[in-house]
């Protein structure tokens, strides 16, 4: 099969997030398919921006379209989106003729790329696939307060409705979207759920690196003082609800626990200043580390924390990457969430408490600290088994291919 994947924000191991397009594409290539990823040269989620033009990474072909740099979510980002879509639209006939795709996937988070993908698919007589990361415009409306009548929201709504009407296949990472999509015109026979997952390569011990020496030394000191480690690894933004974790840490000052946060994000400086001002002696922040160090870092945690804001948008489900890493590392997870699904509960790999409730988080920590070592080990094994069975990229890539073949792709 020849697969054209349009993802504005696609990344790679060289460039950083988003990783999902690369991991799926690499598995497809390994299975004998041909893949071309179209992406923008500038994305706010990448750590390194690529050079414009073609590139090949581990058998996956990319074409990086030149787009203007931007910061934040203002007009600069809108211009960036418009530039990318306009250029791919212009190249539709060339892509159809030269690459001859059997399937064209629109997967850029925002839904307007479905119009571009539809143009290519029609020219190539290929299957049109709409891949849903988040529900737009509902996500910016519910999470950021955008008016449903804002011109950008109206544009997104038109694109979402067109996607459900015209796509041969809709693939969603979120598992509880059926009612919403049906209300916007989707025939649910087209819908397949393919969540996020992990790549096994990163868990190959020969490819891993020891964790940063400063982090290892700090955790060793905390253990020598009789404290266990509650860890968080990932982005530090408002959606991650880390203020709740700091509030819980204030209630755990006398408990034998140390909180370690590793990562970066818009909120990190404020959170660190807040912890310092509150005198949270057993809370320590560290900068982000390379992905190859993540398994070694997680192995040092006794409990891994992941939290969410209380917001209605999560009724459609969640698909967090870092949770898959926690489970793969056999960590017991404290999950602060209210959502349409709960992988921690499904896996039996930890404890779930209500979101935005510091007292519940603190009590959850106490309960997990009180478990016998063999109980925690059993939870960790269940979490890893859950990921291996359902959330590795070889499994997910095959589910995607099976969904394509169910709608007649060769």
UniProtKB/TrEMBL annotation:
Residues 16-197 form the Glycosyltransferase subfamily 4-like N-terminal domain. Pfam families: Glyco_trans_1_4, Glyco_trans_4_4. It comes from the Bacteria. This is Glycosyltransferase family 4 protein. CDD domains: GT4_WbuB-like.
């Amino acid at each position: 099969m020849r697969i054209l994947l349009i993802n504005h924000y696609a990344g790679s191991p060289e460039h950083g997030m988003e990783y999902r397009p690369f991991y799926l594409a690499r598995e497809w290539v390994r299975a004998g398919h041909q893949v071309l990823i179209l992406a923008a040269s500038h994305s706010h989620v990448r750590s390194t921006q690529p050079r414009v033009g073609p590139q090949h990474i581990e058998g996956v072909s990319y074409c990086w379209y030149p787009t203007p740099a931007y910061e934040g979510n203002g007009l600069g980002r809108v211009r960036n989106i418009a530039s990318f879509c306009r250029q791919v639209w212009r190249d539709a006939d060339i892509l159809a003729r030269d690459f001859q795709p059997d399937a064209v996937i629109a997967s850029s988070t925002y839904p307007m790329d479905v119009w571009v993908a539809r143009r290519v698919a029609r020219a190539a007589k290929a299957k049109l696939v709409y891949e849903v990361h988040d529900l737009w415009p509902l996500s910016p409306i519910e999470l950021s307060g955008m008016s449903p009548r804002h011109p950008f929201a109206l544009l997104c709504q038109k694109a979402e409705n067109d996607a459900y009407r015209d796509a041969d296949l809709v693939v969603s990472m979120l598992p509880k979207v059926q009612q919403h999509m049906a209300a916007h015109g989707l025939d649910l026979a087209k819908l397949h759920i393919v969540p996020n997952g992990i790549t096994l390569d990163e868990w190959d011990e020969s490819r891993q690196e020891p964790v940063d020496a400063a982090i290892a030394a700090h955790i060793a000191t905390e253990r020598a003082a009789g404290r266990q480690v509650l860890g968080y690894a990932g982005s530090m933004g408002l959606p991650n609800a880390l203020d709740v974790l700091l509030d819980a840490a204030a209630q755990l000052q006398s408990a034998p626990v140390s909180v370690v946060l590793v990562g970066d994000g818009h909120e990190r400086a404020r959170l660190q200043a807040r912890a310092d001002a509150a005198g949270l002696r057993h809370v320590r922040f560290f900068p982000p580390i390379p992905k190859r160090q993540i398994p070694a870092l997680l192995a040092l945690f006794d409990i891994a924390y992941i939290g969410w804001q209380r917001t209605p948008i999560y009724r459609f489900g969640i698909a967090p990457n870092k949770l898959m890493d926690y489970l793969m590392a056999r960590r017991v997870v404290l999950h602060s969430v209210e959502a349409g699904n709960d992988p921690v509960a499904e896996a039996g790999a930890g404890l779930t408490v209500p979101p935005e409730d510091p007292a519940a988080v603190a009590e959850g920590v106490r309960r997990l600290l009180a478990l016998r070592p063999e109980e925690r080990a059993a939870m960790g094994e269940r979490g890893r088994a859950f990921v291996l069975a359902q959330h590795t990229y070889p499994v997910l890539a095959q589910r995607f291919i099976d969904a394509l073949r169910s709608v007649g792709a060769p």
